[in-house]
Amino acid sequence: MQEGSKKAIVAAFTANLGISIAKFVGFILTQSAGLLAESVHSLADTSNQALLLFGSKRAKKEANSLHPFGYGRERYFWSFVVALVLFSMGGLFALYEGIHKISDPHETDNLAIAIGILVAAILLESFSLSTAVKEAQRIKPKSQSWLKFIKSAKQPELPVVLLEDVGAEIGLLLALGGVITAHYTHNPRWDAVGSISIGVLLIIIAAFLAIEMKGLLIGESALDSEVASIRTAILSHHATKNVIHLRTEHLSPDDLLVATKVEFDHSLSVHELSQVIDEIEVLIRAQIPSAHFIFIEPDIAHSTILN
After folding, report:
1. What whole-number distance in Å separates Cα of residue 188 and Cα of residue 288?
2. In this structure, are residues 34 and 178 in contact, taking their beta carbons and an 8 Å threshold?
3. Which is more confident, 168 or 110?
4. GO biological process annotations for this chain's record (predicted)?
5. What distance in Å separates the CA atoms of residue 127 and residue 214, rounded to the nearest whole number?
6. Model's pTM, two decimal places?
7. Which of these three, 178, 202, 218, is where a domain ends?
8. I want to staple 114 with a disulfide (CB 3.0 to 4.6 A). Which of 13, 30, 152, 166 is the partner?
9. Residue 70 in 3-state DSSP?
């Protein structure tokens, strides 16, 4: 895991732990459905940051005969689990609490306390979000949109933290709006509406994360620009005649597998061919340092079906 990702996770963990405690105390004092939904949401976020750190630690295990390419996909797996936790502990609970309060409405007590806790939580979440944004900007191309970055990033931690923090900020504003509206209209169902809105928001975010993490877990190719750089590196060698086909797959955010069939100069001896392949591997890694596993098969173009 890159240092920036770890820094963003630790900042989010610290902020969410403090926020979840404050929100739960606020719920006890105010009986606000929105605050209860938000306290469970923050507790889920706190556990999610712990899961991301756990996945990062697991991914560092050495490769063995059972897992010859290592355990890098642990980071993708635990990021997928994060989406499930966000869906169940965050989204479904918020929906349940909101629906329950609609059927059994009661006034929110201590409005000032509820507002104070929510405003403080917004400030803490803003700190967490700004840290995640700052660290993401170190690796995000300036011309790339944030949505494109989240969808194309091979490192799962920063997109997860970014989406969680954005969801938390919006959720806090919904909870704040629900509490204030319920108080001044004397209709506690508005607080319930805030809780239901938070639930829907979290379910949408969780579903988006699950889809993105599933793609990484199954295996995604390198970015188009990286594939083009690999192809260029292969063709740059004077002994290369043609790249017959090229396949890439991320085994982890930092480990790329490259498999290719290449047509070389037919006059090369076996010894010369072996040297050329070694030289091409060096050229590829010079362009893409994460290409730790490279398999180059010499072939003749007309004998290959794939193109």
Report:
1. 57
2. yes
3. 168
4. zinc ion transport
5. 29
6. 0.75
7. 218
8. 30
9. coil
